[in-house]
């Protein structure tokens, strides 16, 4: 099936956030698809990009320019490059063959699925930085800046059309989808949307961890709690949550006395319905419907995504996953070693207990090193 085909039987209509009304003026959007190859060329991902990202934005009068950076490609692959170009028609593409240097700051040291001494969650920010560099090169060539930059992982499947917010004084991440903990709100590295003038803290995030003293770049976390009194970067509350640093770069704070922009700083959560497509053997895999659309959404207010829209997304995800995987659904034994370890440590029952009890979530946060009031929304 071609990338323009639409495998969805229905389109869910969840609003992306309280500040999205579809009335944003026509502009240009650079879309950075970055990370590992993963399921970038699979049917669900390529159809999702065409049907839920490119077409809706184009229909609203926006121009859409994809940029692609794939890390850890062992060597230049002409066939892979040709397939990607035919599917996504990127303005610019880079297959990064060299191994990135391990970040020197201990907060970005190895954990999770380890690659070259650092986690994939950390290393993806190298490809993010590279992609923003390509966007800058294109802006200089055309002598015009993009209005927005949308960064996406290479394995996302959306179940509602993507729309641009109307406010351009905030940056945006999906609500839920990555953590059930209320005190990890706005900490999502699956997708990031920024008005061009507010992209720099995200584009340069990884550079704050490039020295052994963990001293950030000037201006990092100004007004928030991302920097300790000694001037070094505050470590993430739990070992696998490097995405916690994203809202810190935008002045987020768990301290009630240091919230000029709220607990998420300048970051706003979008009610974006999505899941991750996992490849198991080439194009054969499944979509992580329950984990992304249910478990990790437990603490998200229903006003952001109404129950009917959640149900719509779950039904579409389940149906598409069965189609993608030849009739079966993803099971725990087929999930990556990193995710299995997280599931074993936290446990689904514990996840639901934490989501339904602020006290439980707060106690876990204190044990994991989060501020005592970290569960306050």
Sum this structure up briefly.
Helices cover 30% and strands 16% of the residues. It has helices spanning 43-59, 78-88, 120-142, 200-203, 245-248, 289-293, 307-325, 337-346, 348-356, 358-368; strands at 28-35, 63-71, 92-96, 114-115, 118-119, 148-152, 156-158, 171-174, 191-195, 267-270, 274-281, 284-287.
Protein architecture, described:
By secondary structure, the chain is α/β, with parallel strands linked by helices. The protein has a domain of 254 residues: Spore Coat Polysaccharide Biosynthesis Protein SpsA, Chain A, CATH 3.90.550. Helix content is 30%, strand content 16%. The protein is built from 10 helices and 12 strands. The strands form 4 sheets. Strands 3-2-1-6-9 form a 5-stranded mixed β-sheet, sandwiched between helices. Strands 7-11-12 form a 3-stranded antiparallel β-sheet. α2 links the parallel β2 and β3. α9 crosses α10. The longest helix is centred in the middle third of the chain and has 23 residues. The protein starts with 27 loop residues before the first strand and ends in a 9-residue tail after the last helix. The C terminus is likely disordered.
């Amino acid at each position: 099936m071609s990338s323009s085909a639409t495998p969805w039987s229905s389109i869910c209509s969840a609003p992306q956030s309280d500040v999205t009304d579809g009335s944003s003026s026509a502009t240009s959007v650079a879309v950075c698809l970055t990370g590992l190859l993963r399921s970038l060329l699979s049917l669900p991902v390529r159809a999702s990009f065409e049907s839920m990202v490119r077409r809706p934005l184009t229909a609203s009068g926006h121009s859409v320019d994809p940029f692609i950076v794939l890390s850890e490609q062992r060597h230049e692959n002409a066939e892979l490059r040709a397939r990607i170009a035919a599917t996504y028609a990127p303005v610019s593409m880079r297959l990064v063959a060299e191994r990135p240097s391990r970040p020197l700051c201990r907060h970005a040291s190895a954990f999770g699925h380890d690659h070259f001494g650092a986690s994939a969650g950390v290393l993806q920010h190298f490809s993010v930085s590279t992609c923003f560099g390509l966007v800058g090169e294109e802006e200089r060539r055309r002598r015009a800046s993009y209005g927005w930059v949308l960064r996406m992982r290479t394995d996302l499947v959306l179940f509602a059309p993507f729309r641009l917010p109307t406010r351009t004084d905030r940056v945006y991440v999906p609500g839920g989808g990555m953590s059930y903990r209320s005190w990890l709100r706005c900490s999502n590295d699956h997708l990031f949307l920024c008005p061009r003038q507010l992209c720099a803290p995200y584009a340069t995030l990884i550079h704050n961890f490039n020295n052994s003293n963990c001293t950030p770049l000037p201006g990092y976390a100004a007004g928030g709690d991302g920097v300790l009194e000694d001037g070094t970067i505050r470590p993430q509350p739990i070992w696998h949550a490097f995405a916690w640093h994203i809202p810190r770069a935008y002045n987020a704070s768990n301290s009630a006395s240091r919230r000029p922009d709220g607990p998420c700083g300048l970051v706003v959560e979008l009610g974006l319905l999505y899941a991750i497509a996992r490849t198991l053997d080439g194009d054969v895999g499944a979509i992580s419907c329950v984990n992304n659309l249910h478990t990790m959404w437990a603490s998200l207010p229903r006003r952001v995504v109404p129950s009917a829209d959640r149900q719509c997304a779950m039904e579409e995800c389940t149906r598409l996953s069965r189609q993608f995987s030849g009739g079966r659904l993803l099971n725990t034994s087929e999930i990556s070693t990193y995710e299995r370890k997280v599931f074993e440590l936290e446990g689904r029952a514990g996840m639901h207990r934490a989501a339904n009890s602020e006290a439980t979530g707060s106690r876990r946060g204190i044990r994991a090193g989060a501020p005592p009031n970290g569960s306050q929304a």
